[in-house]
Design goal:
382 residues, 13 strands, 4-stranded antiparallel β-sheet, globular, alpha+beta
Length: 382
Amino acid sequence: MKKLSQFIHLSLLWAVAAIVSTVTQDANAQNGNLAEPLEILRNATFGPEGQLDQQRAWKQVSTAKIEHLPTILAAMKDTSPLAANWLCMAADAVAEREFNASGTLPQKMLESFATNVAHSPRGRRIAFQWLERVDPSAKERLLPAMLDDSSLELRYEAVAQLLDKVDLETADDKKTQLYQKAFASARDVEQIESIAKKLTELGKPADLVQQMGYVVDWQLVGPFDNTDLAGFATAFGPEANNNTAATYRGKASNVSWSSYHSEDEKGIVDLNEAIGDEKEVVAYAKATVMSEQTQPVQFRVASNNAIKLWVNGKQLTEHNVYHSGFAVDQHVADAQLKVGANQVLLKVCQNAKKMGWEKEWEFRLRITDALGGAAEVAVQQK
């Protein structure tokens, strides 16, 4: 009985301690002592380690007063998607509780945060969404200035709003002006292609290649052997020496580089057309990209075939998958361009094409900034 009594006593002490700790944590959050729990959420990771700490930290942050909402949203900057999810849920909990209790939210605070481009795009988007709930005029007032915003979501809405205004116009020249303005600002692929179609209908075709940064001038060589799909791992001649004056032993004969210019408005390079309708083969595509400055860019590649990509001799990405789709920006890789000439080499492997839908042997590649706008580069034409 004595041991049982001691056990119950200790259990009660632990329970009280836990309650006191929770109350203290909640009180700290209410008083704005968020530094520690915010740091835990900012460093959130997958896996069992740290899950309890992250849950406790979320509870603390989510009970903060509404005046601390900007601090929570600001913590999203330069975090992982997982960390941003934790912080987003906490921010929404704070805003939802205040809105349910008072029927409103501090509009000036939300607008100030949403329009400050120094904050993270996702945090600004959350602030804007809550602002819309309490200020119906927010979209009409603020979106026109967000056509070139660093938040892709806010930019999308700004372009969509501009497109809605086109429908109110009757004169073709005014419609054309608005469509061209929207086209220049759009970064969403579906928006861009839709606007381009409208401009074509108005007799003012838009340049999708230039707007999206597609590379359409290439040097091509092949075919090389990909029997049993072994070619993906085989370093053929162009990987060691991609001098366009070189000749290599191909699958059936010697092969050399040839110039190719894609006329496709979406930058598609059809290797069946350029090299030949072959099975179990490999081709290489090379481009020289000129940059006037050192700059970070993204190489966005799409192909139905297995690919490898190098820039200035450094492999950026590889995908040993066949016929898994051809969506724009299927594969995205970050790179740093140097001043002057930058060498881009793409390896594209085709399989045995046993099925009719496996016929495609093609790719498209575009060079963009982080938002998907065409990078400031020029491609040498041979």
